[in-house]
């Protein structure tokens, strides 16, 4: 006769948190072992790819792990990927450059207007 699994269920419903795995004990008895949910990698906030260098854990486990497992030594270390950080830096630089160019052009047009007024007098 086939051996049966002895269930010790948390609840009688087939939910994500109530999955089991059949395990044979050293005594030869089949037991149901509750399987924990798989951990997903933290994702980049901008592009959504998994962050390399950051540990894949369930949310509560991050509290018991050291900071070196949760971050990368870079700006926006544990929340943005390297490409997005590069993109942000370049964008900020270009915006600042654009502001400077705009200011210079404005000064040149004002100088040209003053020169016209002087030449008319």
Please count the helical segments.
Answer: 2
Number of domains: 2
Largest sheet: 2 strands, antiparallel
Average pLDDT over all residues = 91
Share of helix among residues? 25-40%
Beta content = 5-15%
Question: Order of strands side by side in the largest beta sheet?
Answer: 1-2
Ends distance: 115 Å
Number of strands: 2
Shape: rod-shaped
Please state the CA-atom Rg, rounded to the nearest Å: 31 Å
Low-confidence stretches: none
Structural class: mainly alpha
Order of helices and strands: EEHH
InterPro entries: Ribosomal_eL34, Ribosomal_eL34_C_sf, Ribosomal_eL34_CS
Family: Belongs to the eukaryotic ribosomal protein eL34 family.
Keywords: Ribonucleoprotein, Ribosomal protein
GO cellular component, one term: ribosome
Structural description of this entry:
This is Ribosomal protein L34e. This protein folds into 2 domains: 37 residues, no CATH class; 81 residues. A hairpin with a 5-residue loop joins strand 1 and strand 2. The model has no long low-confidence stretch (mean pLDDT 91). It has 121 residues and is mainly alpha-helical. It has a two-stranded antiparallel sheet with strand order 1-2. The termini are far apart. The radius of gyration is 31 Å and the shape is rod-shaped. The longest helix has 39 residues. It is built from 2 helices and 2 strands.
